[in-house]
Amino acid sequence: MSRLGWLKQIWRVMSLVVGLALWQMLLCAQAMASDGERHSELHQLPAMAKTPLISVSNDYPPFYSPQMSEWGVVYHLVEAVFEHAGYPLSHEFYPFIRAQTLIKRELADLIIGVWYRPEREQWIDFSDPLLSVSIRLYKRSDSKIVFRDIKDLKPYLIGIGRGYANPVAFGQANLNTEAASSDAVNLRKLLAGRVDLVLICEDVARYLIERPGSEYNGKLEPVGDPLSVELFHIGVAKHLPNARQILADFNQSLAELHRSGELTKILASHGFEHNAYWQQKSQSSQ
Fold first, then answer.
1. Which residues does the UniProt record annotate as the domain Solute-binding protein family 3/N-terminal (predicted)?
2. Residue 23 — pLDDT band, cuts 50, 70, 90?
3. 81 in the same domain as 22
4. CATH assignment at residue 185
5. Domain boundary among 230, 250, 267
6. What is the mean pLDDT of residues 31-47?
7. Residues 8, 117: one domain?
8. Do residues 228 and 88 touch, judged by C-beta distance below 8 A?
9. Residues whose CB falls within 8 Å of the CB of residue 166, separated by 6 or more in sequence, listed in order
10. What is the mean pLDDT of residues 184-188?
11. What global pTM score does this model have?
């Protein structure tokens, strides 16, 4: 059994032990309370603990990554929302294809950072949005490539992420693409001239290119306008018997953290206080 499989079993056993302990507390309280006091004392006991959840994602800085403070802005949001909703959460990082497979094989409960595509509804239910991002193409700075329309990209080999959800128009254009396991791998291939362009989230590209000691700094740059704006969600596995309840609790807690201002504090702590999705959300609620 895989490490994640053992971890999931351990979490389930812990949840059962906690549940039994709380049940014993209830029985003890009933035995000790007098008839006139029993009802009020039982209502002072803690609520039954919610099922611990195992989440997975790829390593996708600056949004979710063990390299980042609080594991990145999106993970930080997800963790805070589940804590507010009362769900213990554990997390593992994998390549994106592996993370999807773990959900489909019922070895994990939710995946963090997915973009909505209808075909993904076969195996996950989507939460309300967490953050918006722009998707665009990058080229080498010494490249003469320009484009105004998708069809202008036909002559070029374009690096994409394996298993990623690409912009719809991009996917329908039947372009010449080559998949890699991560955006970092794609940028290395771009720098080495093994691909002509890379399709990438702009924030991820900027993080990888501009971080201290980066080999890409001054050598790679965006080309053309963004091809799409995508929204991050969590995806709750449909195999969970309480998937709908988990999703409802998550969405409710996300809205409550937004109203309280806590969500804005988390965004600001990672430099995302001006994210377009949440700015629009705040303006529409005024």
1. 51-274
2. very low
3. yes
4. 3.40.190.10
5. 230
6. 36
7. yes
8. no
9. 135, 160, 199
10. 96
11. 0.80
Distances (CA, A) of 222 to 143, 144, 151: 11, 12, 18
The sign of the CA dihedral 20, 24, 25, 30 is: positive
Banded pLDDT at 20 (limits 50, 70, 90): very low
Whole-angstrom distance, CA of residue 282 vs CA of residue 69: 25
> H or E stretch including 224?
strand 220-237
Indicate if 116 and 238 belong to the same structural domain: yes
Q: Name the pLDDT band for 25 (thresholds 50, 70, 90).
A: very low
pLDDT in tens, 198-245: 999 999 999 999 999 999 999 999 999 999 999 999 999 999 999 999
* Phi-psi label, residue 193: left if phi above 0, alpha if psi -120 to 50, beta otherwise: left
Count the alpha carbons within 13 Å of 136 in the hemisphere toward its beta carbon: 19
Please state at what angle helix 262-269 crosses helix 243-260, rounded to 10 degrees: 80
Total of domains in the chain: 2
In the predicted model, what is the mean pLDDT of the chain?
A: 86
- Of 137, 124, 106, 118, whose CA–CA distance to 5 is shortest? 106
Q: What type of residue is 175? A: L
223 shares a domain with 247? no
| Whole-angstrom distance, CA of residue 235 vs CA of residue 243 | 10
